[in-house]
Design a protein that fits this description.
It contains two helices and ten strands, in the order ββββββαβββαβ. The strands form three sheets. The protein has a five-stranded mixed barrel. A two-stranded antiparallel sheet has the order 4-5. The longest helix is centred in the C-terminal third of the chain and has 10 residues. It is globular, with a radius of gyration of 16 Å. The model has no long low-confidence stretch (mean pLDDT about 90).
């Protein structure tokens, strides 16, 4: 007996190529981070979420490598520990987030333009 299966294949891979570079940054107390979050690392080397004003994503220059709960961030901040961040490489724009929220397609162009300055590639992956 044969059976036909249909379904959807969904790709949620953040990193989509070679040449990825990471650094470390300090975290803010009581701040949660999600893998793929755009981050703004200031002169104090503290990673924060960019401000979104009327749908426009503010300045950013890195991407979170992994999830951090607010509790983990508080512990890391209190003990002068840092978290890894992506600072270079190709990433799927459909998987990138701001504070855990996916970008809207209306935000893609401006965020991709800023990515060029940051030496980060935000690619539109086929199928997404």
């Amino acid at each position: 007996m044969s059976q036909v299966l249909t379904g959807t294949i969904e790709n949620k891979q953040l990193v989509v190529g070679d040449g990825v570079r990471t650094e470390n940054a300090k975290v803010k107390t009581a701040t949660a981070y999600k893998r793929g979050d755009l981050l703004n690392v200031g002169a104090n080397n503290v990673a924060d979420h960019p401000v979104v004003t009327e749908g426009v994503v503010g300045e950013w220059n890195a991407i979170a490598v992994s999830d951090f709960t607010a509790e983990q961030a508080t512990y890391h901040a209190a003990n002068n520990l840092e978290m890894p961040i992506y600072v270079q490489g190709p990433f799927d724009i459909a998987v990138v987030t701001v504070n855990g929220t996916p970008l809207t397609t209306a935000q893609y162009d401006a965020v991709r333009a800023q990515a060029l300055v940051n030496k980060i590639e935000l690619r539109k992956v086929v199928g997404n």
